[in-house]
Every structure is written in C-alpha cells, then in structure tokens.
Amino acid sequence: MTRRFTEFELIEQLFAPLAGPAGLGLADDAALLPAGEETVATVDALVAGVHFFADDPPGAIAKKALRVNLSDLAAKGAEPLGFLLALALPQDWTNDWLAAFAQGLGEDAGSFSCPLLGGDTVKTPGPLTISITALGCAKGRFVPRTGAKVGDGVFVSGTIGDAALGLRLRKDPALAARLSASSRDFLLERYLLPRPRLELASQLRAGASAAMDVSDGLIGDLAKLARASKVAARVKLEDIPLSEAAREALAFAPDLLETLLCGGDDYEILACGDARLFGVSPGGRRDFRRIGEIVAGEEPPRLVDERGNIIEFSALSFSHF
C-alpha cells in the first residue's frame, strides 16, 4: 500500500504551491489578506468525535469552535473583527440543540467583540462538522512563526497539558476518580472550553520575534515554529509551567508526561524573543514563562531534565494523519 501524506507533507507539497504572498507559503496558522496590510484571516474545522464529544453541551461546542480561531488571531498579535460560520449538521439535529448552539456562540461573539458576519448551513450524512473563519486586525504588526532567531528566549503563557489531561479523564474514568474533585473539574473544563489569550496580543506585537498557539502539543508545535524559522530549540522540563491539577495527575501516573507535553488543545501562546519583553505586565501579572532558548541547527527541539538528560517521546504532537 502506498504511504499516505502526513499532515505536514500534504500542506507543504500539495497546497503551499497554491498560496500567494498573502498565504505566507502556508507556513503559519493565519495569513495577511491582500486587501489590507493589517487584516488577518484564519480558519479551523472541528469534527464530532475528533475535536469534541458529540454529547458535549451544544453551547460549549460552539464556544470551542470560535475560541480556537480566536487563539490563532491572538498568537499573530491580532484583535478580532468578526467571523464566518460553515455548519454541517447531521441527520438527527433538533431545534433545541441548534438554539443552544446559537446561544453559546452569541455569548462568546459578544464577550470577545467578534460578531458573526455570514456563513452557510448544510446537512451531512456524517458527523457534526463546524468550520469558522475568523478575521482580525494586526494593528501595525503581524507576528509570524518564521522570525525566531538564535539567542531568543522561548516562552509560554499559562500552564501546559491541562486540556490533554482533561481529554484523558473523559476516556479514563478510573483515573478521573483518583483525582480531587477540584482538579478533575479544572482539567475537564480546560478541555471543554479553551481560553484564547487575546489579552496578550499587544504584548506579542511589541516584542515577539515569532509566535503561534499551542494546539497540537507544546513540543510538536515548538518543532513547527523552529522548522519554519530554520532554527532549533532547547527546553528545560523543570521550567515548563504546570497547574496544580496537572501535578496531582502526574503524581498518580508519571507516564502522563508525554500526554501533557505532546497531547494538544492547550491554546496557550508559544513565543520567542528578548526576555525583557516578556516580563511582568503593568498590572503585575507574569503573563509568560521562559522555558528555553532558540539555538542554531534544524533538528527537533531538545527537552532536557534537571540532570541534562534528553527526554524523548514517541510522537511530538497530535496529528490528524
């Protein structure tokens, strides 16, 4: 049997040649539109059974679909302008389900100042499929994933691995039962409802040399950023920020480390740049934590423990193919 393309090969070999200057060679998760130097566009498709559970609350499904796109805008330093929705409904949809979906979508559209601009609704014999195209304004500077330089620090926002653990708990009730109720609820919500870091957009525009959101796993997404920038990276395990809930889960099952770092759905921001530009914000928050540095080379990121030993994983990130 002929080997199928990987996701990266599919993009690089088949679709990148179709992209003009605005598409940036499809090396990023968003693009500058030719119509305006500051207009940014991004699209994500979510499929029931792949990106969410079919029996998740419809309002939460809608919010996740919008928020993963807003996360892409945030990582480019862009503020939301609006979005387009394509909705493929399965045969068993109901008015009540669709009303709850629209209510959740409307709540987030209002909260994030990102109105619905148009779209399309169709019927499908397959699972529920949602595609959102979000538009944003970069306000003077689009932050690519191609600008990382040797000597840059590597930074992440928030905590890593919570959503991947939340998914694991949905699939492993026995593990979920071992955690405290507060930790279990925190991890499950982190999977169900991402938190797009739009509040960090201006900070990224001001000083990030490169950035992207962490959607497919920290180590794998860092590999994508480094490859796009034609550099390598070195990360210290002890410096990766973990929540108390994640640490509790690791204490019960140390083999979950790969899930945390390579599992995806964090939707935190991975950024490179000068350490002075990622310090404490004017409000006293420490929005980013340094986890490593950009180094010369083009090999995959090196993750080292406190003794300097290199940690290797079977797969660096989630892949659809």
TrEMBL record:
| Catalytic function, reaction form | thiamine phosphate + ATP = thiamine diphosphate + ADP
A single GO BP term for this record reads: thiamine diphosphate biosynthetic process
The residues that hold Mg(2+) 4 are: 29, 42, 72
Which Gene3D superfamilies is this protein grouped with? Answer: PurM-like C-terminal domain (3.90.650.10), PurM-like, N-terminal domain (3.30.1330.10)
Residue positions annotated to bind substrate are: 51, 265, 318
* Binding-site list for Mg(2+) 2: 44, 72
What is the main EC category here?
transferase
**Binding site residues for ATP:** 119-120, 145, 215
User: What's in the keyword line of the UniProt record?
Assistant: ATP-binding, Kinase, Magnesium, Metal-binding, Nucleotide-binding, Thiamine biosynthesis, Transferase
Tell me the ranges covered by the PurM-like N-terminal domain, including all copies.
Answer: 28-137
PurM-like C-terminal domain residues are 149-252
List of residues binding Mg(2+) 1: 44, 120
Q: Which residues form the signal peptide?
A: none
Which InterPro entries does the protein's record reference?
A: PurM-like_C_dom, PurM-like_C_sf, PurM-like_N, PurM-like_N_sf, ThiL-like
Q: What else is known?
A: Reaction mechanism of ThiL seems to utilize a direct, inline transfer of the gamma-phosphate of ATP to TMP rather than a phosphorylated enzyme intermediate.
What this chain does, per the record?
Catalyzes the ATP-dependent phosphorylation of thiamine-monophosphate (TMP) to form thiamine-pyrophosphate (TPP), the active form of vitamin B1.
Report the NCBIfam families cross-referenced here: thiL (TIGR01379)
Check the record and name the PANTHER family matching this protein.
THIAMINE-MONOPHOSPHATE KINASE (PTHR30270:SF0)
Q: What is this protein called?
A: Thiamine-monophosphate kinase
Its lineage opens with: Bacteria, Pseudomonadati, Pseudomonadota, Alphaproteobacteria, Hyphomicrobiales
Q: Gene for this protein?
A: thiL
